[in-house]
Amino acid sequence: MRLPLLILFVSYSLSIVAAPRPFQRTIASPNGRVALTVSATDSVRFAVRFADQSLVSPSAIAMTLGSGQTLGAGVPQRSRLRTVRDSILPPVVTKRRVIRDHYTELVLEFRDQHALEFRVYDDGVAYRFRTAFTDSITVRTETARFAFADNPTVYYPAVQPRPEVDRFHTSFEEPYQIRPLNQMPDSVLCFSPVLLAPANGPRVVLTESDLLDYPGMFLTRNGNGLTGIFAPYPLTEKLVAAEYSQYIVSKRADFIARTTGKRTFPWRVLVIGTDRDLPASDMVYRLATPSRIGDASWVKPGKCTDEWITNINLYNVPFRAGVNTETYKYYVDFAKRFGFDRILLDAGWSDNNDLFKITPGMNIPELVAYAHSQGIKLSMWTLAATLDRQLEPAMKQFQSWGVDFVMTDFMDRDDQKMVNFYTRVAEACAKAKIMIMYHGAYKPAGFERTYPNAITRESVLGSEYNIWSTKATPDHDVLLPFIRMVSGPMDYEPGLLSNATKEQFRPISGQVMSQGTRCHQLAMFLVYDSPISIFSGNPSQALLEPRFMEFLGSVPSAFDETKVLDAQLGQYIVSARQKGNDWYIGGLGNWSAHDLTLSLDFLGDGAYEAVSCTDGPNADRNPVDYQFSTKTVTRTESLPVHLAPGGGFLIRLRKK
After folding, report:
1. From the candidates 464, 477, 491, 566, which is the catalytic residue?
2. Which of 108, 345, 431, 622 could join 76 in a cystine, given CB atoms 3.0 to 4.6 angstroms apart?
3. CA dihedral 584, 589, 594, 599 (to 10 degrees)
4. Which residues form the Glycosyl-hydrolase 97 catalytic domain (predicted)?
């Protein structure tokens, strides 16, 4: 009788030993202020605290494959913890020369060939899946939930429905709606980055990084949080012929991605910080895949002109302005005079649907020769559908013209197929040693680290909206550094020289004006990250104000260091950037006036010549008004600055 009982007892004991135990671990950032707790029973959840304040409540993570397998289900087989104290030296220096990369990492390894990686930085938290399957996989869905404590205020750009397309078609250019999270409609689909502002404590920017071969993350509200939504894979597309033809998805699959089985997936990113921290953040860049293009010394930040917003409405010229050789020679002369590197030939220099069908009146070889004689580069606009079809011969043509920078436009999607278009074009451009900028585009998500020649992109409601709407307000402009810019550089295209108050403003094509002051437009060249900064104003106006334009032209577009001196979300921001021994300070304000005092304690020893361009005494009713002043300062001093409603300023500090 004893033997069967013994066998029964042993069998029962072994079943207890084999049962997986629930997993839970808390790890902290290097400075100890950000804490991440990861738990796993039937599924994985994460929670985030900042200085003992709950920011993110337990939130689910999972990925379901086409095979039915769910990644992130159950308890991990093992976990690994490490601390990293490293630095990144970016191959193209744009915001700072050395990027501090310090974090704590937790990796959960599961039995079925996948892992979850978590990183905790002093300025945020990120996680991603990693798989090691031999064969390719289909991702049916991804669960990315972010539950927030205490009903924060959410700043989100909502996708606006378009006729005859599904909800995943958008140019990613919308103003921010602001409301408590529990008042955000469940039906709204928004694109990231999104900012969440608790009543107390730090801000949180929700976005992603390392978006490669996978769809981008949209967001919707789900109870007390936000949930990731991903565009299904496009099974069929149709080319809709128009002035700006583009591919529209006509049928989508029941999965979001087909991809290689051995890979890492995009990071889900929560950037955490104060109003001063967020605009200077490079967390998204740190998380991205390092450069794939080898030597990037040929990638050259600089300044460019563009003529599209003003509709080439020149005056005081001895020729008929338009898309013709004489006009672009005029732009070349303008660029040379005021220290710009290149001019952009925007839409119209060729047939939009055929890059080799040059517009009558355009003699490209003659223009190329003239620009080269003046030391100015030509840059070319392209339509994405056309560039994709003519990619290889277009690269050869651009190379023969000495073109080192192109724009491509009207993608308006971020499903997996379109995301791969960005990679394909960036690689082709890199092979030809050409920089690329994307318009009608989703946010950068660290792409500029992986492809340093993808130097900037749009994904922002910028200057062009002044042509047809009232959306590009100073209130909007001052939100961008805290939200959109956290994801990477943005091409706003400032520099409009007709400036108006809220009451005076009218959207007028061909006579485009901006809302806010002249110095508000000027300050954007410093406050906004864009290593190719584009002046969109009218050169005929600019030539009448040479001192202003010489000052604007003297401001670099890439910097050795970036600091935010003062900031208040939605109110104002003051940024300082270093280039060599010199510093530049720029500030933007909303529709309220602001009086600020700027400490100069970040300067080095010795004296600096401070040249300031600030709102003039009448800028509150005539926003064109500005004034220059010059004085000698040291690091022990402070500078008072007044911002008119919709105002701004820019100060250049040169070491004596």
Report:
1. 464
2. 108
3. -20
4. 308-460
The DSSP-derived string for 575-598 is: EEEEETTEEEEEEEE-SS-EEEEE
DSSP-assigned beta bridge partners for residue 34: 50
Q: Give me 159's structure tokens.
A: 């996708």
- Distance between CA 566 and CA 634 in Å, rounded? 19
Residue 20 binned pLDDT confidence (cut-offs 50, 70, 90)? low
Q: Is 359 exposed, middle or buried (0-12, 13-18, 19+ CB in 10 A)?
A: middle
Residue 448 bears catalytic tag: no
* Candidate list 117, 208, 409, 615, residue with the active-site label: 409
Coil, strand or helix: which one is 131?
Answer: strand
- Residue 172 gets the label, from left (phi > 0), alpha (psi -120 to 50) or beta, of left
pLDDT tens, position by position, 571-606: 999 999 999 999 999 999 999 999 999 999 999 999
H helix intervals, 73-219: none
Q: Which helix (H) or strand (E) holds 246?
A: strand 246-252
- Quote the CA–CA distance of 438 and 480 in Å, as a whole number: 18
Residue whose C-alpha is closest to residue 471's, from 82, 132, 177, 210: 177
Which residues are 48's β-sheet partners?
36, 56
For residue 12, give the 3-state DSSP assignment.
Answer: helix
What single letter denotes the amino acid at residue 387?
L
What number of helices (H) and strands (E) belong to the chain?
12, 41
Task: Render pLDDT for 276-298 as a digit per residue (tens, 0 to 9).
Answer: 999 999 999 999 999 999 999 99
CA–CA separation, 422 and 164 (whole Å):
24
Return the DSSP state at 231: P
Question: To 5 degrees, how large is the angle CA 267–CA 269–CA 275?
Answer: 155
CA distance 421 to 246: 13
Which amino acid, residue 73? A
- Annotated active-site residue 464? The verdict is yes
Instruction: Calculate the CA 49 to chain-centre distance.
Output: 26
3-class secondary-structure state, position 53: strand
CB 436 within 8 A of CB 424: no
Bridge partners (DSSP) of residue 648 are 588
Greatest Cα-to-Cα distance within the chain, rounded to the nearest angstrom: 114
Question: Could you give the domains of the chain?
Answer: 18-287 (2.70.98.10), 302-476+489-548 (3.20.20.70)
Q: In what order do the strands lie in the sheet containing 456-457?
A: 456-457, 435-438, 405-409, 377-383, 342-345, 302-305, 532-535
Nearest to residue 231, comparing CAs of 216, 213, 246? 216
In the block, residue with structure tokens 């310090």: 102
> Residue 334, SS3?
helix
| pTM of full prediction above 0.90 | yes
